[in-house]
Amino acid sequence: MRMIIFLQIALLLSACDKTTDPIPTNNSKYTFVAIHFEAGYKGRLDNDLPIDLPEEYLTMDFGWQEYLFETAEKLIQKANDYGFHLTLEFNPQWAEYILLDNSKINTVKQWQERGHEIAFHHHSLNHPDWNGYSNDPNAVGNPIPFLGNVNIGLDFVRNLATPEDVTTAMIGGLPIDMPQSYENTSENLIFTSGNQYSSFEQYGNLRSLKPYRIIKNNGAEITFVTHRQLTTISNDFTIEEALNIFKAEYNNIQDEEIYGLVFHCYDYLKAEDTYNNWFEFIKNNGDTIKTVSEVISEYEYEIPIE
Q1: What is the mean pLDDT of residues 110-115?
Q2: Region class of 21: left (phi > 0), else alpha (psi between -120 and 50), else beta
């Protein structure tokens, strides 16, 4: 009888030991979707946008944003239908445009109330759609009008997000274009990174899906998280082919990986059904899309420091 009780206790303790470490299941995949809202600034002036604007928008201040705002509403409503939370990464022009209209400000506040995150997106001087903000001295003599340092651009996005903080960002041109307030802050930050050329083996090495951190001199942390880019602009394969690549990759991610996907507001205008397919795919996997901040706050593994 004592032997039986001993075995029962041993089995119970063994079962407890197995639950002390996180055991990822199909329902515990870490995944996010970040939406890039492009500047439409240099591209609008050069009349060289990724999609054609109707003529009446070409000469309009913030014509790019005016043309695409309805698409943004449709995209975010679709995420709401699934109960997903998106990371909305705005170039300064988008924030400046929305701040001019109280009804649009209220719309953004409703997005935040539904759990979506307002984040900062910056196009550097070398980006085809540079947003006019740069810490690079060479930007002042550029043919495209210079609008100020990157921190000025970030302030527009912060004003839009208030009273919430903007601690998630995708910033091109680092380290030169690091906003001064991000350099000085003692808050922890999250930077997303990756583009089309680091998303497919056809272009070279894939970026690692495992996050990592750096510690600033003041002790604050910056967590770097990779995303894959699903775009309608590709000469090598269709967006449907790219989507299938990402689905296969998602189904085979490792325990400590975070699967982030990024696409643009203008992408959704051109290929709405394809992007809705990704939402449906995540739902059918029994998973949910959370903001970058939510994903990092719930991440259960040690993030290496570099």
Answers
A1: 98
A2: beta
Residue 190 within any structural domain of the chain: yes
Q: Establish if 19 belongs to a structural domain.
A: no
**Residue 5 placed within a domain:** no
Number of domains in the chain: 1
N-terminal to C-terminal alpha carbon distance within the chain? 55
Residues spanned by the domain of 84: 27-298
Q: Are 166 and 120 in contact (CB under 8 A)?
A: yes
pLDDT in tens, 243-281: 999 999 999 999 999 999 999 999 999 999 999 999 999
Hey, how many other C-beta atoms are within 10 angstroms of the C-beta on 113? 8
Q: Tell me if the pTM is above 0.85.
A: yes
CA dist., res. 25 & res. 29, Å (int) = 7
CATH (domain of 215): 3.20.20.370
Residue 35: strand pairing partners: 88, 263
In a domain, 14, yes or no: no
Structure tokens at 162: 């208030």
